[in-house]
Amino acid sequence: MDTFLLLGQGFLVAFELQNLLYALIGVTLGTAVGVLPGIGPALTVALLLPVTYKLDPAGSLIMFAGIYYGGMYGGSTTSILLNTPGESASIVTALEGNKMARKGRGGPALATSAIGSFVAGLIATMGLALIAPTIVRFALSFGPAEYFALMVLAFMTVSAAFGDSTLRGLTALFIGLTLGLVGIDLQTGQARLAFGIPDLLDGIEVTTLAVAMFAVGETLSVAASKRSADEKIEPVKGSVWMSREDWSRSWKPWLRGTAIGFPIGAMPAGGAEIGTFLSYSVEKQLARKPEEFGNGAIEGVAGPEAANNASAAGTLVPLLTLGLPTTATAAIMLAGFQQFGLQPGPLLFANNPQLVWGLIASLLVANLMLLVLNLPLIGLWVRLLSIPKPWLYAGILVFATLGTVGANPSSFELGMLLAFGLLGYLLRRFGYPIAPVVVGLILGPLAEQQLRRALAISQGDPTVLVHSPIAIVLLLLAAAAVIVPLILRARGKGKVLAQLAADED
Amino acid sequence: MSDTRPSEADRPGQERRPDMGALAIAAGLAIISVVIAWNTATMGGVASYSRVGPTAFPYAIAAVLFVLAIWTAVEAWRGDFPEREADNIPPILWIVGGLAAQMLLLKVAGFSIATGLLFALTARGFGRGPLWKTVPIGIVISLAIWFIFSRGLQLSLPAGPLENLL
Fold first, then answer.
1. Would you call A457 an interface residue with chain B, using a CB distance cutoff of 8 Å?
2. Membrane-crossing residues (chain A) (predicted)?
3. 3-state secondary structure string, A142-161?
4. CA A432: distance to chain centroid?
5. How far are the Cα atoms of A87, A174, A272, A286, A298 from residue A156, in angstroms, in the given order?
6. Which of B32, B39, B49, B57 would best serve as a mutation to test chain A binding (most A beta carbons within 10 A)?
7. How many Å separate Cα A322 from the centre of its chain?
8. Is the bond into B130 cis (omega within 30 degrees of 0)?
9. Do the Cβ atoms of B106 and A456 come within 8 Å?
10. A8 touches chain B (CB under 8 A)
């Protein structure tokens, strides 16, 4: 098995002392920031990206992998101890987890969530390692037309398929695509939408946009909200260890959640956290004590939390093998690669196997570190939760601007941060999703490049886009992703879709 | 996504008025669309060697944005947008003021003073004061951050009078 050999070499990279240290710093920072209320995985990686600027590519990506997984863990701690619905992908965890915490069973809830995340992360990362070479082989046969079709599919599933309005999803996407136009055209050197401003020639930084939308936009909308949410931190009483019964009720949901979450995350359509909802309803169906659901059933924490982490690892499949980000978090990670001039995709596996496999191995290492780190340090994370709002958000903005200034010490960049922050606030107020803007910004230029490459090969004949069966299938799926939800909503079934949308901040 | 937001289905028959805010968004989208088209048309210069040059994609995006603007206007007119809370302007002004102050002072006063002001004004936006206490706290915190990140991680953060003392 070639894969295991490559993975073994990856472990050699991951076990270098310096890389272990980077992974440890990554998971610690990721958890600490992810735990803060109002900060989801997307913002965690965007805020911490600058920390990795000065490292070498391998070290930086390894730290980044740790941040990503750490952010996911931190988010579930917040949901269990602090009922903040709509905070992040772990919204389902809050349903049962917070109930458990209120009954004084916060410890076992955190434990099942941490161990479930570990199991899911382990299996899903192995899945990533096994499945990636196959997809890479397949993807190497893709021409520009297939890539373009794939990106169109990603655009449509990220923007139109889920959420409560096709219109608002598409609008958010096209705002992102418009921002992606700004700067020098990759192929001709022509400046577009730069209005003669030199700072705009390099285009708009994905991290600036993401930090502005998620951090500044979120801060503004929390500050402007008159409703002061009743947020009560549930103290962790008693033992954090799970009883024998907890174990026997948890292990099957962990495995089922992983089985549900990973494929959904791995599909190029895995933009939304459907996996957690599916897992929740599956566990509810299969539970021996269904009456406990709604009152703190441990299965309702174990399953969705595993699904959540499995699909987070799953989204790395299209990101690493195809260069296709399907969530805002993945889009920011793509930006993390691009800062070193690396373009994820099949060629990265071929040209830079040490880096890719080192990264995958580091995910496994980070996963183990998180398990060790999380349970004993839970008291510390809980203390982070109780930071009063004014200090919390003041701190978030300080770090948001720190990242922006660190990347590019100019007042203009801060001006953009402010402008996009206001834009993010407006989008939130009017119910627009944020992720399509970020994905549109980073994927738009890539899609344009593929489109023009395809048309250059065909000498301008647009039918080249539908010459291969793969491209046709992908484009049909993309069309379906727009049309089917439109019909469902027209028939009044839009509520289900709205619930499936990930509110990724 | 909170489930508490009333959806259209919950309130049948109720008269919905045109949503002025959403209409403004529609107008904004239309303006952006026109700006893209105008900018693309006047960018001139480079003779494109392939038939699909740097103008095709912007035109396509401008066209779709225009359609989206019309669609938004229709939904706004029918009042299809989700309901919003009333605006609570003062906190927004404090925070935007903080960001603006940091932006303007960054080069002149250095990272710590500029960011300390941002810290204090944001806290003020959330109702925590008084400024004469929070501004110094913010500056001290920012100075510590400056020290860690610019000395430890070698980020190039602008230095001002305070940073030069260190």
1. no
2. 20-49, 61-82, 109-132, 144-163, 169-186, 316-335, 355-379, 391-410, 430-447, 468-488
3. CCHHHHHHHHHHHHHHHHHH
4. 18
5. 24, 11, 12, 33, 35
6. B57
7. 16
8. yes
9. no
10. no
Q: Are A284 and A300 in contact (CB under 8 A)?
A: yes
**Subunit contact A405:B43, Cβ cutoff 8 A:** no
Domain layout of chain A by residue ranges:
1-501
pLDDT above 90 (res A171): yes
Token pair 């727009």: residue: A482
Residues A437-476: tens digit of each pLDDT: 988 998 898 899 888 888 888 887 888 888 888 889 889 9
Note the pLDDT of residue A202.
83
| Count of H-run helices and E-run strands, chain A | 23, 2
pTM for this predicted structure: 0.85
Residue of chain B whose alpha carbon sits nearest to that of A418: B99
B92 contact residues in A (CB cutoff 8 A):
220, 223-224, 425
pLDDT in tens, B15-58: 557 788 888 999 999 999 999 998 888 876 555 555 667 788 88
Per-residue pLDDT, A228: 56
C-alpha distance from A154 to closest chain B C-alpha (Å): 17
The answer for A 75-94 residues in CB contact with B (under 8 A) is: 85-86, 91
CA-to-CA distance for A125 and A503, rounded, in angstroms?
24
Residue with the bigger pLDDT between A106 and A119: it is A119
Q: Is A486 touching B (CB cutoff 8 A)?
A: no
Chain center to CA of B118: 16
Please give the residue of chain A at the shortest CA–CA distance from B83. Answer: A430
Residues of B in contact with A451 (CB under 8 A): 52, 57
pLDDT at B6: 42
b/e code A354-387 from CB counts within 10 Å (16+ = b) = ebbbbbbbbbbbbbebbbebbeeebeebbebbee
- Which of A167, A216, A224 comes nearest B68 by C-beta? A167
* pLDDT number for residue B158: 82
Partner residue facing A401 (CB), from B29, B107, B118: B118
- Residue A183 sits at φ, ψ, to 5 deg, of 115, -170
Question: Chain B within 8 Å of A405 (Cβ-Cβ)?
Answer: yes
pLDDT digits (tens, 9 = 90+) for B75-125: 888 877 777 777 788 888 998 999 998 888 888 888 888 888 988 998 888
Chain A residues 176-215 with CB within 8 Å of chain B = 177-178, 181, 185, 187-193, 195
Residue of A47, A411, A500 to mutate for B, most B C-beta atoms under 10 A: A411
Least confident of A187-201, A249-263, A461-475, B112-126: A187-201
Nearest beta carbon to residue B46 from set A188, A401, A417:
A188
Answer whether A294 touches B (CB < 8 Å).
Answer: no
What is the rounded average pLDDT of the residues A194-202? 82
Token pair listed for A227? 């409703």
ipTM of the complex: 0.85
A431 vs B82: CB contact, 8 Å cut-off?
Answer: yes
Show the DSSP H helices in A287-434 as ranges. 299-314, 316-322, 328-338, 346-351, 353-374, 378-385, 389-407, 411-429
pLDDT in tens, A330-370: 888 888 888 888 888 888 888 888 888 888 888 888 888 88
User: Please, what sign has the CA dihedral across residues B127, B129, B130, B136?
Assistant: negative
Q: Which of A409, A384, A358, A492 is nearest to B110 (CA)?
A: A409
